[in-house]
Structures are given as structure tokens and as C-alpha cells.
Amino acid sequence: MSKHHIPEAHGGHPNVTPLIDVVMVLIVFFMLVAKIGVSTGADTKIKVPASILGTDIKDMGNVLFLNVTPQTKESDVPIVTANVKNASGATERAELKLQNATGQNEVVNTLKFFRFGKDLKRGGTNENADNDNFQVVIRGDFEMHYAVLEPVLIACAEAAVKTVNFNTAKKMEEAPASSH
Amino acid sequence: MKMKGAKAVHYESGPNMTPLVDVVMVILIFLMLAGQFGGAEHYLASNMPLVKGGSGGEPGNSVSIDEPVEIRVDSTSPDHFVARGNTINATDGAALYGQLQALRARMGAALKAAGKKESDISVKIAPGRSVRFQHVVTVQEAAMRAGFEKIGFASAH
Questions:
Q1: Torsion-angle region of residue B147: left (phi > 0), alpha (psi -120 to 50) or beta?
Q2: Dihedral angle over CA of A121, A80, B42, A134, nearest 10
Q3: How many angstroms separate the CA atoms of B91 and A123, rounded?
């Protein structure tokens, strides 16, 4: 059986074959791992709280990110934004008002839409079918007060969302203090 | 005498790889810059986001296996909190974790004696209005680390 050898460089021309091999492997790796053009609606400007524990969500198709920030630093009034479809059908991040001009809670209605379908009620088929696997991810500022978060949790409870996740930053476990 | 001519210039007989390498490098740099890897974040899940019934008065010291463990969280200053509840009094996540672990061990023994499962124990976190989100997460994380599976939140007090 004949053995393949790396071809030798000729007359000052470097052999680029190993370079191309490595670069191609890197490209395939990045294409598989990188999420390009996939927007979850998460507001990356929000500084989320840190935690040691945490899990990954595998099925991002059933997840709605709610970005929660206070109106001002000391305010207890939340601003909630999420990826929703606009009038033209395109998905974009928009503010959901807890009480709009007509008195409707847009957060509850949006959650019910994802949870129960177009009719916003339990039961139904096709576009009105319930989605029991629907989850919410709350991406909140680590400094905001619980009073800001509470209306969003109430909205989740009203829409019968079964799982609510808090988006947190990974924190390394603190080493125990030395006894010496 | 045989004259040696100038050495012939050797050209690669294969295809010219330079444009390929250029394009491949551009693609590689694009993928490295445009990709979102999200490796620095994760999620704390709660299967019972809001527990009905807010936090009333001060929680007692008795340990009941039929009622949820209530942890009342108050803010002592913007950067500090105190968590109190059934035999719990802690001002940081590590101390709270230790106390909750001990509480769970005691409750687990009582549950076993009553023929119930440890997973039946639920925890109700009742933060004050001005408690920071970071502290709420710290308390939830301590409860999760202590092995409690059902963790919910009460209305703000």
C-alpha cells in the first residue's frame, strides 16, 4: 500500500496544504457552532445577575425572551421588550406595555398567544393549539428591584406559563477560605 | 565542455492556491467575528414562577412538611440582603445554602417517616419590593443547590 507524503516546498514557495487543512477545519467548526443571523430577542446591553448554577435551553424554538429593565435606575416601573411580529409580519424587538392605551396588558396577551395560540384561550387546534412546552426567559438588570420583576412574573402566571427561566451570567464557584 | 545553463525556474504544476487561501481566510475571520457563542450565560429555571398568597408576617421557626418553606428576603442596604424563614437567617448565599441544606435534611427525614417524597417540598421566596434581582437569584440558587426542586416566588411585601 502506497503511503502519501506531504509534498515538499519548491523554490521558496511555502507548502500551504497543511494551512488550508487547518483553516477548513476551523471554518467547518465555526459554521456548526456559531449562531449567525439567529436573534433570540435578548438585549445584550442588560447586565444580568450572576449565578454558579444554571442549565442550557436546548429547544430555543419554544422560548420567548423578555427583557426587563426599570424606566430609571430607581424606578419600580418596568419596561418589557421582546421579539414579536410587527404589522408587516417581520419579527422585531418591540416594547410590550403592561397597560396600553386601550387598557390591555400586552405582556399577558403576547404570552397567551405563544402559550394558547391565536385565540388566547385554552384548547383548540391548528393556530389555536396550546403549546405546553412554551418557556419564558427573563433577562433582567441585576440591580433592578423585585418590584420591577413582579408584574412580569404575574403576567407569566396569568398566561399559565409553566417554566420561567432567569438568564444569568456564569460565575465560577468561590474557593473555600483556607483554614491555615 | 558542457555549459550548464541557468537553472530553470520551477513553477508549481498544481492549481494556484493563493486566491483560495485569501477567500477562506476572509470567511474564517467573518465567522469568528459574527458568530454568537453565548458560552458565558445560562439559565435558572422555575417551574412555579408565582405562588399565590403573598408573604404575611414574620415566618415562624416551626418546620412543617405540608407547607412550603418560606424564605423572606429583605434588603438591608442596596448591596446586602437578609434571608429569614424556618430556622433560616442568612446574609449571603453560602450561609443560606448551608442552612437550607440542613433544613432539607431534617424535612427529608420527617417526610420519609410520613411516607412522602423529598421532591414534594416546595420553597416560596418572598422578596421585598426593594430587593435587588441579583439577591433574588442568589436565594433561588441557594435553594436549588440545597436540593429543593419546586421553587416559586411570592408577591412583593
A1: left
A2: 10
A3: 46
Q: Are A163 and B46 in contact (CB under 8 A)?
A: yes
Q: Per the confidence metrics, is the pTM higher than 0.95? A: no
In this structure, are residues A114 and A127 in contact, taking their beta carbons and an 8 Å threshold? no
Tell me the pLDDT tens digit for each residue of A27-70. 888 888 776 666 778 888 889 999 988 888 877 788 899 999 99
B153 — contact with chain A (CB < 8 Å)? yes
Closest residue in chain A to residue B132, using alpha carbons only:
A145
Helix axes B18-34, A17-33, angle to 10 degrees: 30
Count of CB atoms within 10 A of residue B25's CB?
Answer: 13
Q: Does the pLDDT of residue B9 top 80, yes or no?
A: no
Q: Convert A11-25 to b/e letters by CB count within 10 Å (16 or more is b).
A: eeeeeeeeeeeebee
* Interface probe, candidates A21, A36, A38, A51, chain B, greatest B C-beta count within 10 A: A51
Q: What are the extents of the domains in chain B?
A: 69-153
Residue of chain A whose alpha carbon sits nearest to that of B150: A163
In chain B, the residue whose alpha carbon lies closest to the alpha carbon of A165 is: B45
Say if residues A63 and A135 touch (Cβ distance below 8 Å): yes
* Chain A 109-168, residues with CB within 8 Å of chain B CB atoms: 135, 137, 140-150, 153-154, 156-157, 161-168
Q: How far is CA B86 from the centre of its chain?
A: 24
Q: Which chain A residues are within 8 Å of B42, Cβ to Cβ?
A: 51, 54-56, 168, 170
Put simply, whether B15 touches A (Cβ < 8 Å) is no
Contact A19 B41 (CB under 8 A): no
Query: Mutual orientation of helices A146-158 and B133-145 as an angle, nearest 10°?
Result: 60
Fold of B69-153: Nucleotidyltransferase; domain 5 (3.30.420)
Nearest-CB residue to A157 (from B12, B50, B156): B50
* Residue A70 DSSP code: E
